[in-house]
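lol ok so funny story. i was supposed to be doing the assay writeup but got distracted and ended up predicting the structure for this chain instead. priorities right. anyway since i did it might as well share w the group, maybe its usefull for someone
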Amino acid sequence: MDLQYLIQETESGMRLDQLLTSLDEIVSRTQAQRLLKFGNVLVNGKPELSPSRKVRTGQEISLTIPPLESTKVLPEEGELDILFEDEHLIVINKNAGVVVHQSAGHPSGTLVNYLLHHCQDLSGIGGVLRPGIVHRLDKDTSGILVVAKTDDAHQNLSEQFKEHSVKRQYQTMVWGVPGKDHGVINAALGRHPVRRKDMSIVEIDNLVESGKEKGKYAVTHWRVLRRFEFSALLACRLETGRTHQIRVHLTSIGHPVIGDPQYGKSPLKSLPSVSAELSQTIANFRRQALHAEILGFKHPSSGEWLEYSAPIPDDFQQLLKAIQHD
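and the output, tada:
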């Protein structure tokens, strides 16, 4: 599909990816940035690769939207804990250890594989390897996520996530006991300058450097649910949904998530009062103690508010009981 668009006076100064996302034919900023990356966007006849370029009145935008490739993900039989399903979407309570979609090192056995076995009508706009995926949870994070079955549902849900109108609450066990009952972490996140698989806090003044986006604003609200001798159970509500947001934010205030091998250094060796039994329980808990317990959003067709909850899973419960009784 080839499109031409003339920049209006009211649009002057907008980022190019923002302008593209406002077009009916573009369903998400991710899709817009993908088109830019592969040279499918021309500004006044010249290829433009920078999503942050500002557009000006009278410029002509030409873009080519390639047809969707047929999915290369094969259906596989697997366990699905379905909380809700209709012709528009499906709400899943994901087990820890399950990867959401195919990626390097995970060619099969993903949630998408299981979903394609369950239903063959997932939306296509999430990409070839990610049909239906509107948002994701890390492999070792358990809990609720919503998957779109139609392109219209996918676009609507993506807009809700982009506008931060979706309700998302997590429970997590952290090292250390916060001195306050609640708080807000407002700290932008970007790729770590050395460890490229990690995220890190980005100074506000450095969000954009040399025309490249260095980080994104991120806000996490937290409150203490229970206090223990050397740890605490927290509820975290997300305003934004950045990669590894809760894990990095809590580490930044000195309370890393228990079991997190990437950001959460264990202080067990410096805690002589911890029993050998509890030490073994924590050592056997081989994932971050993070669970997406609540997800709320407007139904993309009816507009009805939908909200789902899932209790923390058995392994998390066992960890909590062991800490409580130590």
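The first strand starts at residue 2 and ends at 6. The longest helix spans residues 151-162.
back to the writeup now i swear
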